[in-house]
Amino acid sequence: MRRISCFLFVFFFLVTAFGGFLTVTYFVQQGDTLYDIARKFRVSPSTILDWNNVNPLKLSVGQKLIIPQPEGILYTVRRGDTLYNIAKAFFTSVSDIKQANNLTGDNISVGQKLFIPTASIGKAFNIEKGYIWPTFGVISSPFGWRRHPVTRQMSFHSGIDIAAPEGTPVFSSAPGTVVFTGERSGYGLLVEVRSSKEIFRYAHLSKITVYVGQKVDRGTLIGRVGSTGVSTGPHLHFEIEVLSKEEVVNPLAYLPSTTRVYVLREGTEGMGGE
Ligand SMILES: [Zn+2]
């Protein structure tokens, strides 16, 4: 019996090898859930959602899924990127990226795809405290009263805006359960994660890589930076609401120090939104 199921399992996927990783092409079977498939291949459901445009709760039999082995994220090099900047976006090191992609020098070209192994994410720039920076960028709009970047009226900003190129990964700042994914006015594509004490909001995403009910850890890929909703350009709006007070708080008080992570320059005019 065991031999038969192994045979079936092998029969339903194909393997393609690249530089430092390979991809498995898996065809969804009757009764499969995203969670089961993720477990089978020892990856996070977020990795499968990042690599594939699928509805996590409505997989169809025969649907093709691409799954990287080892687990990792693909990043497409943009104009102006350096290996150092990309390393920061993944909170990892240049040497880890070079090793994973068999690069000998520092040269990269626009459009080039780089593989970032999940195991190397979060090793640098983003340590200390209980919460981590959800994305690497420049704080373009602080928490509190400010002139709204779109309406130009004075208004209360319920979180911080971190400007970063479209497609920059967004990681869960703290462990919790995903309670909302989808479009919400102003916020654009939004993910809400609930912990025992807070709700975390990640807004204006270009892509969401979690589903409602998913348990996330610190560092789980939530999605990618975008400019959906009320927004002047690609950035992450990051918000923390304390459940006991039903009140939003300044995320900077919860995150590792800005000097430690190199993230930030405050008060700059730049990307913003709700
Ligand atoms: Zn904002």
Primary descriptors:
274 residues, eight-stranded antiparallel beta sheet, binds zinc ion, Membrane-bound Lytic Murein Transglycosylase D, Chain A, 3 domains, three-stranded antiparallel beta sheet, disordered N terminus
Walk me through this protein's architecture.
- There is one protein chain.
- The protein is of the alpha+beta class and 274 residues long.
- It folds into three domains: 12-69, LysM domain (Membrane-bound Lytic Murein Transglycosylase D, Chain A, Roll); 74-120, Roll (Membrane-bound Lytic Murein Transglycosylase D, Chain A), CATH 3.10.350.10; 138-261, Distorted Sandwich (Glucose Permease (Domain IIA)), CATH 2.70.70.10.
- It has helices at 2-11, 34-40, 45-51, 83-89, 94-100, 258-261; strands spanning 13-17, 22-27, 64-69, 72-76, 113-117, 138-141, 144-147, 154-157, 160-163, 169-171, 176-184, 188-194, 198-205, 207-208, 215-216, 221-224, 235-242, 247-249.
- Strand 12 (188-194) and strand 13 form a beta hairpin.
- Helix 4 (83-89) packs across helix 5.
- Residues 1-8 and 260-271 have low confidence and may be disordered.
- The structure holds zinc ion (ZN).
- Zinc ion is lined by residues 141, 157, 159, 161, 237, 273-274.
